[in-house]
Amino acid sequence: MITDQFSDENGKYMSPKDAGMPGEDWPDTMRYTVEFKKIGDNESEIHIVHEGIPKSMHDDCVSGWSSSIDKLQNVVEQH
Description:
Elements: E1 2-4, E2 30-40, E3 43-51, H1 58-78
């Protein structure tokens, strides 16, 4: 499990609101877990649990994770 929070350019904590995030239900710290499971010789399954995001941001987070996974897949396939 990894914890995450918003910070300024110097790494100092800042609230999600001060970081410009929409919504009112942001916690100070979010948690996410990324698990990789081998399902074949050249295949893996990725399971991501992202806790602490407001319900109103769910679709944006799914889109962001999907984009990141697509980029990871492209890198893996090139090597």
